[in-house]
Design brief:
The protein is α+β, with helices and mostly antiparallel strands and 169 residues long. The chain has a domain of 118 residues: Electron Transport, Fmn-binding Protein, Chain A (Pnp Oxidase, Chain A, Roll). It has 4 helices and 8 strands; from the N terminus they run βαβββαββαβαβ. The chain has a 6-stranded antiparallel beta barrel. β2 and β3 form a beta hairpin. The chain is globular, with a radius of gyration of 17 Å.
């Protein structure tokens, strides 16, 4: 199934985390989290932890503000910032919500986001969320769209029953 922006909704199954975690495996009848619940966490999160990789392989993590439009996380950063330089060289990243209780971790690739009409929607949504209006025409910054490949989510209060792996094609 695709949403209005053409981004496919993910398929879900149970993640493999090792026997000691108590997570039952696929096909045993246990329920996965509904994507409708997880997308609400994703959309309403104030901050997102962005993990990138430096050119020498060392990790780097920083919080970013962003908005989710049509299931896609959009965020901006200075091209000269450490995360901006890391993403320019290696667009692979991990995004994690600020919550450790309602968890969503997404692994994927970011792409520079340049569609003028969609950028207007991004700026308006960003201003509504943070009372700050970014300027995507600023040559010193980049606006990125996360294209997730795989994700993991769970409710901490029901970890074993709710742990879910998401996959995008």
């Amino acid at each position: 199934m695709e949403n209005v922006n053409g981004v496919p909704e993910p398929a879900s199954d149970r993640p493999w985390m090792g026997v000691g975690y108590g997570i039952s495996q696929a096909g045993d009848g246990t329920a996965n989290l509904p994507w409708s619940e997880v997308i609400t966490w994703f959309t309403t999160s104030r901050s997102y932890w962005l993990a990138t990789t430096r050119s020498d392989g060392r990790p780097h993590a920083m919080p970013v503000w962003g908005v989710v439009i049509d299931g896609v996380l959009l965020f901006s950063t200075s091209r000269d910032s450490r995360k901006g330089r890391n993403l320019a060289e290696r667009p692979e990243c991990v995004i994690h919500l600020e919550s450790g209780d309602n968890v969503l971790i997404l692994e994927g690739i970011v792409e520079e986001f340049r569609d003028p009409l969609a950028l207007e929607k991004y700026v308006d949504a960003y201003e509504a969320k943070y009372q700050f209006r970014p300027d995507p025409s600023d040559p010193g910054s980049s606006t990125y769209a996360l294209r997730p490949k795989v994700g993991f989510s769970w409710r901490e209060v029901a970890f074993e029953a709710s742990a879910t792996r998401w996959r995008w094609r």
